[in-house]
């Protein structure tokens, strides 16, 4: 089969996911300016590939079951988890633990609160250093700063967008106490390597799995590989209640301490025993979560199926490379479907031109995170705080500032990262996925016009 003999749309519909790799192996050498083009770009007056509007998340799952769950809680008068040991929060904690394959779950008011609770419960604080990624939601770093520990950033692996295990050991010193790997986009980090490093250096591991509900790695659910796992149920997440989070784990003593910390230092027996904020999940959040949890697994599987379809369609295509999967990766949360844009295959057009042309075709990809944490003002802010000056030597703070160079993260943020919103878009039909591919290939065909 010759690629030139088929229209772009006919090619997409004719080739199945299982045969696409073979098809692309034959057609990649044909890419070039001599191929038949697939129509004028919409940005220059052509007909867009797609005019259909993507569904909105989370409104698309606000069905009668969810509404009834909230209404029932409203009428019950039980609006705080401390009013009932069998309320919506307690019920959700048991159900989520069951779904994740852990013994215990504690609901919190956000994913950031879950992370902050975990850091405090593990007794990390002033003088301690915790290694994490420069590429995440700021809640990851904020959770460390809340306990006045020092977030130590490690540069990324270019193709996975995860913290690079080869760089971790370079940042370990006598004050390093833990690693917080971030399963960015919902895709598993290289946990085999990270856990080996943690064991070697006697470090704890808190998994930031806030984007990774249900994802599995080497037959284990993300969040169950380290000492604790943290999740988010913020409005954009795969399971959503506006704001909300959870900690999962199997260590009963540690999980009890997490409960106490998030319950403003008050343990399950009602004794006020330690320092802690009030990070409790409320009953309305629990009601919203219970109203959608029944379909969460099916939506997860649908996202993975559609992502696999996109992977197959893009296999061998040099212009957009899907996020790397480490060996042992079985599934992803697919908070985003992430790709690396390689401008050298698009006539050296910078990413903004590619995204603008693609948007005109009806497919909106985004660069996602604009800057890594190492380039944000918080670094200079904490270096000037009296507590950090008192807790860390001048030499350490000076070297800390000097270490804030993350060239791979900068490359990912500034030039290469493009994402398709995964939570809603990956619940679409095969035709929706074909629209994404057709639009990408149409822009590619017209790359000399960018």
Could you state the order of secondary-structure elements as H and E? Answer: HHHHEHEHEHEHEEEEEHHHEEHHHHHEHH
Gap between N and C termini, in Å?
Answer: 29 Å
Q: Please state the structural category.
A: alpha/beta
Describe the oligomeric state of these chains in a short phrase: single chain
Low-pLDDT stretches are 1-36
SS strand fraction: 5-15%
What does the overall shape look like? Answer: globular
Q: Would you tell me which CATH topology of the largest domain applies?
A: Aspartate Aminotransferase, domain 2
CATH class of the largest domain: Alpha Beta
How many distinct beta strands? 12
Largest sheet: 7 strands, mixed
The percent range for helix content is 25-40%
Kindly report the average pLDDT value. 92
Please tally the helical runs, counting DSSP H or I stretches of 4 or more residues. Answer: 18
Radius of gyration: 23 Å
Summed up, the domain count is 2
- As laid out across the biggest beta sheet, the strand order is 1-9-8-5-4-2-3
- CATH H-tier superfamily of the largest domain: Type I PLP-dependent aspartate aminotransferase-like (Major domain)
CATH architecture of the largest domain: 3-Layer(aba) Sandwich
């Amino acid at each position: 089969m010759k690629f030139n003999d088929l229209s772009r749309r006919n090619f997409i519909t004719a080739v199945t996911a299982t045969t696409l790799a073979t098809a692309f192996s034959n057609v990649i050498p044909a890419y070039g300016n001599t191929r038949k083009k697939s129509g004028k770009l919409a940005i220059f007056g052509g007909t867009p590939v797609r005019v259909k509007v993507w569904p909105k998340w989370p409104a698309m799952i606000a069905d009668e079951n969810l509404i009834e769950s909230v209404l029932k809680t409203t009428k019950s008068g039980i609006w705080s988890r401390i009013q009932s040991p069998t309320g919506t929060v307690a019920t959700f904690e048991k159900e989520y633990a069951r779904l994740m394959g852990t013994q215990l779950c504690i609901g919190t008011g956000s994913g950031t609160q879950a992370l902050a609770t975990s850091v405090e419960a593990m007794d990390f604080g002033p003088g301690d250093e915790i290694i994490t990624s420069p590429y995440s939601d700021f809640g990851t770093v904020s959770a460390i700063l809340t306990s006045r520990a020092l977030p130590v950033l490690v540069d990324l692996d270019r193709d996975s967008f995860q913290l690079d295990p080869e760089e971790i050991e370079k940042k370990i010193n006598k004050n390093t106490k833990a690693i917080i790997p971030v399963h960015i986009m919902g895709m598993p980090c290289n946990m085999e390597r990270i856990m080996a490093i943690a064991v070697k250096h006697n470090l704890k591991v808190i998994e930031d799995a806030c984007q990774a509900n249900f994802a599995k790695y080497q037959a284990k659910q993300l969040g169950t590989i380290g000492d604790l796992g943290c999740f988010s149920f913020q409005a954009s997440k795969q399971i959503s209640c506006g704001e909300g989070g959870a900690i999962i784990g199997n260590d009963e003593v540690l999980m009890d301490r997490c409960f106490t910390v998030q319950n403003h230092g008050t343990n399950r027996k009602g004794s006020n025993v330690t320092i802690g904020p009030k990070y409790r999940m409320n009953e309305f959040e629990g009601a919203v979560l219970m109203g959608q949890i029944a379909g969460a697994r099916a939506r997860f599987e649908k996202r993975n199926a559609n992502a696999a379809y996109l992977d197959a369609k893009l296999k061998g295509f040099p212009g957009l490379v899907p996020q790397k999967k480490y060996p042992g990766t079985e599934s992803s949360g697919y908070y985003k479907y992430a790709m690396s844009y390689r401008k050298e295959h698009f006539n050296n057009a910078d990413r903004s031109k590619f995204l603008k042309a693609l948007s005109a075709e009806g497919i909106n990809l985004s660069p996602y995170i604009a800057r890594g944490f190492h380039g944000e003002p918080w670094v200079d802010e904490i270096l000037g705080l009296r507590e950090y000056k008192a807790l860390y030597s001048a030499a350490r703070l000076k070297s800390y500032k000097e270490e804030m160079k993350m060239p791979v993260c900068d490359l990912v943020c500034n030039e290469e990262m493009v994402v398709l919103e995964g939570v809603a878009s990956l619940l679409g039909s095969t035709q929706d996925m074909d629209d994404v591919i057709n639009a990408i290939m149409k822009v590619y065909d017209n790359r000399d016009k960018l």
